[in-house]
Write a structure and sequence with these properties.
Dipeptide-binding Protein, domain 1; Dipeptide-binding Protein, domain 3; 3 domains; four-stranded mixed sheet; 16 helices
């Protein structure tokens, strides 16, 4: 709390001093520097501990994996210069380039990938994304403690430049995983030397286009161009990533030319209405779902009838009008434009049926329903969102749900440790495939905050992930989605998000991809 207050005071002073020094004119670009707003302090820069956007916006610029994404989200070579898919899709052999280096000058080898992937799977790491690698032979058994010997896990360095992965079955989405942050390489010597401080400046070594130069906690992260990057140093020399949680403050910094690029984290609904016709403004759909989650292990949401009633009581069509941020109503979990989406598999708005279900569960007209608080992460624009949800429950179920917000890092910790009966959350695609949504609510996924467990759902998702026939694969995901949303009503999908960004005219190369990750290596800044 104290550090946060100090950082906000600094921002206020910065604005005041800029206004005074600039007199009637505003400042312009800072030579060779991109200035952005993360919105909050990254909980961790350990790629095996992170699950949030703020952390990954940093990580995807300081780390790079076997492959990397193009602007249209295809996987192309990165540290791996090539690879072979063998044994009917059950074995991958990656051939590493020998000019990829860490920021301390050492070469990146296949041993760094073997160490990193097995560290992610090590139960003591408690990595939320360990499930990513469950398709690898013995990976799940090692992660769950059924076997203790990591040498039995089917990923290993055959030599310095050859990394082999053995899968239990073909996985249609596997190559996407090799481009995502948790599957980046890691340095065993650095992590063992510095332990829980290995990600601090001066300790951390990375292999991406940028390197961590400064981390002033609760205020700013500063990245510097990596002179050892195999593709050559990026076009900007420095990235300054500020941590301004208040959208109004961040937007004022942008207007004053103290920030060069902002997104939803820095734009309130009123700001979007004001700037939507500006040439600096862009809005585009992203693969990110907003939903109301139910902890199915906690009453009254242990009863599927209650969950269905709450889901059917929400009129999703009003959110785009109320929020005015480009969202689309969402009735399924797998969003439109991804394989496995079917409009027939989702929930419906039916308040009369919702009331009937609630009465059958023992709460006629809402009577006797326990007093509950809807948990949500604090941000200025989320107030309208949760108040609309609250109004829908009151209007259509005669149930008054309270509202409870927490600072983002605290909120994430609450959901991970002991999620309340009802909460709002979001999930953005880690890669452009339905598996990234469907897998979230499998019983073995560490990010499954609903605590939902259904063996039939697990089986459908696992079958879909390994199915090579695209039509059959789509049908399996459709069945899984229908089970999750219609039959079990484990969550209440609300809207698919849109990203709203503003970019100064002197900035070029900002990415606008559907998984909403910013790769800054191709960004350039016009000279002032």
């Amino acid at each position: 709390m104290k550090k946060s207050a100090q950082s906000l005071l600094f921002i206020a002073v910065l604005l005041a001093s800029s206004a005074l020094s600039g007199c009637a004119t505003r400042t312009g670009p800072e030579p060779g520097t991109l200035r952005v707003n993360l919105g909050s302090e990254p909980p961790s820069l350990d790629m095996h501990q992170s699950t949030d956007n703020a952390s990954f916006d940093v990580l995807c610029n300081i780390m790079i994996g076997l492959t990397q994404y193009t602007e249209d989200l295809h996987c192309v070579p990165a540290v791996a210069k090539s690879w072979e898919v063998l044994d009917g899709g059950r074995r991958y052999v990656f051939h590493l380039r020998n000019d990829a280096k860490w920021t301390d000058g050492k070469r990146v080898t296949a041993h760094d990938f073997e160490y990193a992937w097995k560290r992610l799977l090590n139960p003591s790491t408690a990595g939320a994304y360990a499930f990513f690698l469950y398709g690898i032979h013995n990976a799940q058994a090692y992660n769950t403690g059924k076997i203790k010997d990591p040498s039995l896990v089917g990923c290993k360095a055959l030599d310095d430049w050859t990394f082999e992965v053995q899968l239990d079955r073909p996985l249609a989405y596997f190559i996407y995983l090799t481009a995502y942050g948790p599957c980046s390489p890691a340095r065993k010597d650095i992590i063992e030397k510095f332990r829980d401080r290995w990600t601090e400046p001066g300790n951390i070594v990375t292999n991406g286009p940028f390197m961590l130069k400064k981390w002033q906690h609760e205020y700013k992260i500063e990245l510097a161009a990596n002179p050892n990057f195999f593709a050559g140093p990026p076009k900007v020399k420095t990235i300054k990533m500020f941590m301004v949680p208040e959208q109004a403050t961040a937007f004022a910094l942008y207007e004053n030319n103290e920030l060069d690029f902002i997104d939803n984290r820095s734009l309130s609904t009123a700001d979007i209405e004001q700037v939507k016709n500006s040439p600096e403004f862009t809005q585009y759909q992203v693969l990110r779902n907003n939903y109301v989650g139910f902890n199915v292990t906690k009453p009254p949401f242990t009863d599927a009838r209650v969950r269905k009633a709450f889901s059917m009581a929400v009129d999703r069509s009003i959110f785009p009008t109320v929020m005015k941020r480009g969202q689309s109503p969402l009735f399924t979990w797998i969003p439109p434009k991804l394989m496995g989406y079917s409009k027939d598999d989702g929930t419906t708005y039916d308040p009369e049926t919702a009331k009937t279900l609630l009465a059958e569960a023992g709460y006629p007209d809402g009577k006797g329903f326990p007093s509950l608080q809807l948990l949500f992460p604090y941000r200025e624009d989320t107030g309208i969102f949760v108040e609309t949800i609250q109004d829908q429950f009151k209007r259509n179920l005669n149930i008054q749900i309270g509202l409870d917000n927490e600072e983002f890092k605290v909120y994430l910790r609450t959901l991970k440790q002991d999620a309340p009966p009802i909460f709002t959350s979001t999930w953005g695609a880690d890669y452009p495939d339905p598996e990234t949504f469907a897998n979230l609510f499998t019983s073995y996924n560490a990010n499954n905050e609903l605590k939902y467990k259904n063996p039939k759902y697990d089986a459908l998702v696992e079958a879909a992930g390994g199915e090579q026939d695209q039509a059959k694969r789509a049908k399996l995901y459709e069945q899984a989605d229908k089970l999750l949303i219609q039959q079990d009503a484990a969550l209440c999908p609300l809207v698919q998000a849109a990203q709203n960004i503003m970019v100064k005219p002197w900035v070029h190369g900002i990415s606008k991809n559907a998984i909403d990750i910013q790769f800054f290596k191709d960004v350039s800044i016009d000279a002032p």
